[in-house]
Amino acid sequence: MNKENSPMLEIRNLAVRYGGIQALHDLSLSVPEGSIVTLVGANGAGKSTTLRTISGLVPPASGSIRFSGEEITGWPAHRIVAAGLAHVPEGRLVFPDLTVRENLMMGTYLRRDRKEIAADLEWVGEFFPRLRERITQQAGTLSGGEQQMLAIGRALMGRPRCLMLDEPSLGIAPLLVETIFARLVDLNKERGMTMLLVEQNASLALKVSDYAYVLETGTIHLEGPSPEVRNRPEVQVAYLGTGS
């Protein structure tokens, strides 16, 4: 890795099966504290499965998942969240009939520190001003980009130490994609938030991340500092639409 920091999240020899189908094969990766690491790959490569397995939603067949030095393999999802690892899922999955405020408060269900919760609610509103403007609006009436901001804000209300994001640009207008990714970079630089990013927009993912893994059919095909991966001819052809 190109970061000197110790790993906050470390995956070793992870295998996942869905029935007779092997989705991940002997997958190993590391996310240093304070870094942004991205997983790049085509549809079906195993990116979302990796995040879902880390967050306790899919059981691994074998391998090890460690978070802040502690073995969390096999832990239930709520315990993993309580440890400080939050997952913003693909498709956002906000509660459409609840207001923006109620959705944000759902992210605090493991917390009891009311004053700090109120302060964090104010901070998230400053971080994403659109959410503050729509605080009493039903989440289902928001645009796709606004719902993505809400999903990220909801995760932040749990005060995670590591944020996993699954396709945050999917189905969102380009202007709002730029806004969301700029805020994610701010979150990393200003607050030191560690992130594991799954993103089909490889150009964007490699621009904002420190280190990259390229997945192909459940296996790490190559890895390296993001600028180096971006310059690899096979990556330019397969994922960036450039090269020859």
Explained architecture:
- The protein is α/β, with parallel strands linked by helices and 244 residues long.
- It has one domain: P-loop containing nucleotide triphosphate hydrolases (Rossmann fold).
- Helices cover 38% and strands 26% of the residues.
- The chain has 10 helices and 10 strands.
- The protein has a 6-stranded mixed β-sheet with strand order 6-7-8-3-9-10, sandwiched between helices. Strands 2-1-4-5 form a 4-stranded antiparallel β-sheet, with helices on one face.
- The longest helix is centred in the C-terminal third of the chain and has 18 residues.
**Would you identify the CATH architecture?**
3-Layer(aba) Sandwich
- Report the principal-axis shape: globular
Strand arrangement in the largest pleated sheet: 6-7-8-3-9-10
CATH topology: Rossmann fold
Number of strands: 10
Question: What is the helix tally?
Answer: 10
Tell me the fraction of residues in β-strands, as a range.
25-35%
Major beta sheet summary: 6 strands, mixed
Average pLDDT value?
92
* Whole-number tally of structural domains: 1
Compressed to H and E, one letter per element, the order equals EEEHEEHEHHHHEHEHEEHH
Distance between the termini: 28 Å
Instruction: Please give the share of residues in helix.
Output: 25-40%
CATH class value: Alpha Beta
Structural class: alpha/beta
Low-confidence stretches: none
CATH superfamily: P-loop containing nucleotide triphosphate hydrolases
- Radius of gyration, rounded? 18 Å
